[in-house]
Every structure is written in structure tokens, then in C-alpha cells.
Design a protein that fits this description.
single chain; 14 strands; TIM Barrel
Amino acid sequence: MTLFRPCIDIHDGVVKQIVGGTLVDGALPKTNFVANESPAHFAAMYRRDGLTGGHVIKLGKGNDEAALSALAAWPDGLHLGGGINADNAKHWIEAGAEKVIITSWLFPDARFASERLAAISAAIGPKRLVIDLSCRRKSTGWMVAIDRWQRVTGFAVDEANLMRLAGTCSEFLIHAADVEGLCNGIDEELVERLGRWSPIPVTYAGGARSLADLELVERESRGRVDVTIGSALDIFGGSGVTYTDCVAWNRAHA
């Protein structure tokens, strides 16, 4: 069954909701929401409400302390991403992350590096690893986008590659970067394909704007893809869906 997965996106030490692809060096990103509450506040709330599998993403440098506070609020209950590599993955697991999320580090010079994946998988074990395959839609399909979604690689998000990577990790996290943060609806075709293609759990993010989108993801993926809702959620300043309704959805679908 499709479940709601929570998130904590941290930029400059603060929880924010940023429009996908606007986070670049030397410029202020387009921001939908800036929280008054700390990362630890959100982590404690998710823990209270039993929302498992949420991701904490460090958006750039200077966010380690804030991320550590969130992990301390829910030890072994959250997934941590942002700057993860084979050298620091174990440190973040020991600091309280249930799993770590890798993305751009797997693609030096925008090319997939199987040796890097083998190294980090061996260091912490596949059960502790989530691979982020966030992507942009191109004429040939969906291609992995790295470096804050600014650089599109030649690595396709397709059935062959999902099957290829599945044995090295426990989950995939896939943001549809073209619709992320816009609250204009999900990429239905991508969700349907992920439900058919992936042999392991997948969390989709991007464009979800209402409780109806949870229902849509469940229907299109046949209950095989979970979904994150960010900017549309009331706890992040949105008006499309309430956090309380998402908690109720998970309890009804557990």
C-alpha cells in the first residue's frame, strides 16, 4: 500500500521548502517556506506519529549540526542525505541515521561509477543504503540529474537500471525535479513506470498537492510507490493537504 513519507529539507541550518532546481551557487533559491521550528521539532513530531522512512536532506554546506539534531530526536528513524559518500556514510549511521541516501557522489563527471556504489554498499551494507535517482524528463525518457538537479547525466531511470541497482541498496528515492516544489501535480507517467519497474521500495517526490495525489500514486503504482508531500503540506505553509490527514492516511493503510 502507498504510504506518505515525511521530509526535512535543511538549508543554511533551517527547515525550508525550495522549488526544485533553483538551488545554485551565488544566488538565492526560490523558497516556498521557511520554518520557525527546528529540524529536531519536525523529527520529534514524525516520531510521535509513527511516520517511518522520512528523509532529512542537507542542501549544501553548514547543515551538519542541524541534521544531527534531527537524528538525535529520532535515532534510527530517519534517512539522511546530502554530501554522503563512502568515507562518511558510516559516521552518519553511527550518528543515528537509519539509512543514508547517496546521489551526486555516484556520478563523478556525470558518469555512473559502479566502483563507488560497490564501496559504499560494502561499507554499510545494502540494507542501510538508499539510492537517490532524482531525474528530469528528456525526449529519451527520465535521466538522473545531479549537483542540485542542475546537471543531467546520461543515466536513465528505467527498468534495466533499477533492476541493476536493486541488489546494492534497500530503496530508491526519486524526485521528479521538473515538478518539484511547484504543487502542480505529480508526474503520473513516471509513478506508473516506477510501480512496474522497481523490484524494491520506491519513494516518489515532486508536485504532490492534495490527498487526492496520495490516492493517485496508489492507483497508478498499484500501491508499490510511496510519496512525499512538501510545499503543499500545511506544516510547511501549504494549503493543499493537512499533516493530520496524511497521518490518518498512513494509519488507515498500515
